[in-house]
Amino acid sequence: MTNDNAYKVKWGILSTGWIAHKFATDLAHASNGIAYAVGSRSQESADEFARNHGIPVAYATYEELVSDREVDAIYIGTPHPFHKENALLALRAGKAVLCEKPFTVNSAELEEVVAYAREHKLFLMEAMWSRYIPAIVKVREWIAAGRIGDVRLVKADLGFRSDWNPQGRLLNPELGGGALLDVGIYPVSFASMILGAHPESVSSTVHIGETGVDEHFSLLLSYADGKSASLNGGIRLKLTEEAHVFGTDGYIVVKDTLVNPRAAELYIGGELVESFEQERASDGYCFEAEEVGRCLQAGLTESPVMTLDESVSIMKLLDQVRAQWGLKYPGEE
Question: What pLDDT was estimated at residue 256?
Answer without folding.
Answer: 83
